[in-house]
Design brief:
Blueprint (H helix, E strand, L loop, with lengths): L11 E5 L4 H14 L6 H14 L3 E3 L2 E2 L2 E4 L6 E11 L9 E10 L3 H15 L2 H8 L4 H13 L1
Parallel strand pairs: 1-5, 3-6, 4-6
Antiparallel strand pairs: 2-3, 5-6
């Protein structure tokens, strides 16, 4: 799976304006909605928050991957936000996050959802790449970093 085939350049926010988990998620859901990727913004937000309540999607190392499955999308949608200051996501390692990658998937499409989660996790294991991404100066820079990394 190639994430830049899913992620639209307009669906990156650098920096996020939010200071807490729920607002950061809402900011990214709004970004998907503003770019015409959601059929229903409220349904998407509810699905992501419902998943978040079962277990935090703060996976550690400064990364969170909030995600949800619902009928608010026809296909997998993705948004990325880079926090100016860290955000408490109740991560598994107890550390705050800077990189937030939101995924919203249709209920009936498990494969692409799982593949995207796996690809994101794989990319974020590269500490040099993760650090460069955290320090991106703009959404365009972040998108270009991701595109180049996937083409390597």
């Amino acid at each position: 799976m190639i994430l830049t085939q899913i992620l639209q350049p307009e669906c990156l926010k650098v920096p996020l304006e939010s200071k807490n988990k729920e607002n950061a998620i809402a900011e990214l859901v709004n970004l998907l909605d503003e770019n015409g990727l959601l059929l229903n913004k409220d349904t998407a937000m509810d699905a992501v928050l419902k998943r978040e309540k079962t277990r935090s999607t703060g996976i550690g190392s400064g990364i969170a991957i909030p995600h949800g499955k619902c009928d608010a999308v026809k296909e997998l949608a993705m948004a990325i936000g880079l926090a100016k200051d860290t955000i408490d996501f109740q991560s598994v390692d107890g550390k705050p996050v800077k990189i937030i990658i939101l995924l919203v998937s249709p209920d009936n499409q498990t494969g692409p959802h799982i593949q995207a989660l796996a690809k994101i996790s794989q990319l974020m294991l590269d500490n040099d790449f993760k650090e460069k991404l955290e320090n991106a100066k703009s959404a365009e820079d972040a998108y270009e970093m991701l595109r180049k990394k996937e083409n390597d």
